Amino acid sequence: MELGLSLGDSSKPFGFLSKAREITTTTTTTTNGLQGFCMALGINSSTSARAQQKLHSHDEDDDEDDTSEEEEDEDDDETTNGRPSLDPPVQLNLLPLSPVLPDNASSEGGSPGTAARGFDVNRLPATATAVGEEVTSSSFLMDFCMFRGGKKRDSEAAGNDAVEAERASSRASDEDENGLSRKKLRLSKEQSAYLEESFKEHTTLNPKQKVALAKQLNLRPRQVEVWFQNRRARTKLKQTEVDCEYLKRCCENLTEENRRLHKELQELRALKTTNPFYAQLPATTLTMCPSCERVATTSTAPPPTKPTDLTSKTTAPFPLSRPPSNTLFPFPPATPDHPHQPAAS
DNA sequence: ACTCTGATATACTTTACCTCA
DNA sequence: CCTGAGGTAAAGTATATCAGA
């Protein structure tokens, strides 16, 4: 936080940046704030390109972090990656670079709200080149930028520099209040595709796989880990949606079946009251046409002639609602359009 | 057997960014 | 062109579980 005060000193704007290379060579082994500070400055400086190159040569060391060192990982992010993840970045907005980089400086490639903070993971080399600036903040970000193809908003940003700069600066001033802002990383399509491929092979990673994948994609192991966590969550969510849809359809089918059976029951009761003949029939000899939903008798059980038949056990070879095709129809005969076929199961 | 610790998982939340009306 | 709502994805947090010391 004291660093922010130092940054505010526009009277000596980054004379030390000429020593960026020298400083950054030690960043992997030290964690003091000054270095992180210097690197952060470098990202906004037009003289920092070489320092970034130097950083690139060191960032491989980062990936040596195992997953058992998550906390240390955070520290490393600030130092070895040259990307101040927590404290100083916001202060960087106050860099007196702004007069030097009038409009484009705060809007190149980055999103409106982030560009003025001095570094932006979403900045793209193309746009940076357009404004004659080196904008990436670390080797990882450099690679990341290389991964990304041009996107629509890059060109848009170039066209809206003035407005973007104004918005960015206003937002930056807001965020300077607390000095904390979480930068959002967007994985490139290539990175995502590679992670997807890995996910297809195994949905969980052991530490070795995680580190290897992180190295391969120039990400931190923690990022790979988080990606897999979120990916599993998304998979589960999708599966839940599919299950829900399936159960919904089952419910609808059962509701329809229930409605049909109710109607069938009503038909049977009506038949029983209006036609004593049908009242003597065993229930299993009656069925309903699923298309017109009217009751019919089946030929397998001829109408009883004696009342005692009503008590005799009948063994229907099929469910009541699924009669055989040879049905006796007391209602209008079947036609090609309406053959009184039983419903499909 | 019990406790402690660290790693890792899931569930849920927060945050930054994007898209679109 | 601007803006707000809503969606998405990365990251954070809380908690549970398990293995090993």
Note the main attributes of this structure.
345 residues, mainly alpha, Arc Repressor Mutant, subunit A, 3 domains, 3-stranded antiparallel beta sheet, rod-shaped, disordered N terminus, disordered C terminus, DNA-binding, HD-ZIP_Homeobox_LZ_Class_II
Question: How do the helices and strands line up, and which of them pair or pack?
Answer:
Blueprint: H1 2-8, H2 20-24, H3 33-44, H4 49-58, H5 70-79, H6 97-100, H7 125-130, H8 139-147, H9 152-159, H10 161-175, H11 189-201, H12 207-217, H13 221-274, H14 276-279, E1 286-288, E2 295-298, E3 327-328
Antiparallel strand pairs: 1-2, 2-3
The protein binds a DNA duplex (21 and 21 nucleotides) through helix 13.
**% residues in beta strands:** under 5%
Q: Would you list the SSEs in sequence order as H and E?
A: HHHHHHHHHHHHHHEEE
Structural class: mainly alpha
Q: Compute the number of strand runs.
A: 3
What is the CA–CA distance across the termini?
72 Å
Gyration radius (Cα, Å) is 37 Å
Strand order of the largest sheet: 1-2-3
Tally of alpha and pi helices: 14
| Low-confidence regions | 1-180, 299-337, 339-345
Can you give the helix content as a percent range? 40-55%
- Structural domain tally: 3
Largest sheet: 3 strands, antiparallel
pLDDT averaged residue by residue: 51
Tell me the overall shape: rod-shaped
